[in-house]
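Below is one record:
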Amino acid sequence: MEFREYVSLAANFFEHRWDCNFLYVNSDIDGTAIRYVVQETEKIGERGFLFLFLQTESGNAESAKSIVSYLNEKYTWVSVVALEQCRGAGAAMCGGFDEVWVSEPNALQVAYQCQVPFHTLNREKVWSEFKLHNEMGDEDDDGRFERDLQELTEDVQRMISRQPVQQRGRDIRYLNKMDQPKHVR
């Protein structure tokens, strides 16, 4: 099984467990990104909650605002997981959603640029804010939700590191659909 398929299977499991979608955006934030985000989000059944795994270093503020407005209207709650340090349009996007999670110490810059609540992805923190989104309703989960999301984030980072640099430029899709062939347009 390829690593992307492994990540996709994990996202499928968490999608049902937490009643949420996982959108992966590894792209410049521009007009093309808007089109891809809309196309991708129309393909899958809606849920109230979205984890947006974001990796970007360039783009423009207008495109970032358009994506933020679109996703905020489509979902009742959007949490951004900043996989790397986000600058410019990426920071603007983080500031427009409900919550920011940073996966690396240098990504903390994102959290300080925006006024939304931010959290670091570490195993010691109890993520009580997210327990209400856990559709299993297990009050005594001993931090499983936190550990599971931490492990999924680490898997996504490993997946990115295995991609050749030239293939990192434009990848926008739901994590749970990564095992399916991508349609050529």
